[in-house]
Amino acid sequence: MSSNEQIFNSYEEAHRYSLTIPWKIELCNTGESCWCRVIVPSEPIKFKEKISNWIREDITRDFDYIIPDGSVDKETAEYVVELHNRSVNLYQSQKKRLQALEKLNDLDQELGFE
Ligand SMILES: [Zn+2]
Q1: Is 57 contained in some domain?
Q2: Is the dihedral of CA 14, 41, 72, 37 positive or negative?
Q3: Does some domain include residue 1?
Q4: 103 within some domain
Q5: Count: domains in the chain
Q6: CB-based contact 88:49 (threshold 8 Å)
Q7: 23 alpha carbon to ligand 1 midpoint, in Å?
Q8: How far is the CA of 103 from the centre of ligand 1 (A)?
């Protein structure tokens, strides 16, 4: 996606964005044999975080987890990720359809229809 270099201004913005892109499943440090699975965004997301009110400079952090390790089992993780990705895909294809309709409307007007 085009937003790979994008750095959000806050954790909240990064979080909001993370809900609009596909997710994927990763293993925790224990590996394949562990009961749990980690859910992460499918692309890197970064955000700026204020260190304190006294230090003006922000640090850039990675928005790593949708759901961290030790929270959800493999089957549930797979279910949640599939459900989420399906709804993201649906939203994206609806958005494309709307854009295509808008183009058709523009074309109609250009050609003097309607
Ligand atoms: Zn684990």
Answers
A1: yes
A2: negative
A3: no
A4: yes
A5: 1
A6: no
A7: 18
A8: 48
**Distance, CA 80 to ligand 1 centroid (Å)?**
17
Answer whether residue 62 is part of any domain: yes
Which residues make up the environment of ion ligand 1, defined by Cβ < 5 Å?
A: 28, 30, 34, 36, 69
Cβ atoms of 55 and 65 within 8 Å: the answer is no
Q: How many CB atoms lie within 10 A of CB 47?
A: 22
Sign of CA dihedral 55, 58, 60, 63: positive
DSSP SS3 for 44: coil
pTM of the model: 0.78
Structural domain range at position 96: 7-111
Sign of CA dihedral 3, 46, 91, 108: negative
pLDDT tens per residue, range 29-83: 999 999 999 999 999 999 999 877 787 788 999 999 999 999 999 999 999 999 9
What backbone torsions phi and psi does residue 108 show, to the nearest 5 degrees? -55, -45
**Is pLDDT at 90 greater than 60 in this prediction?**
yes
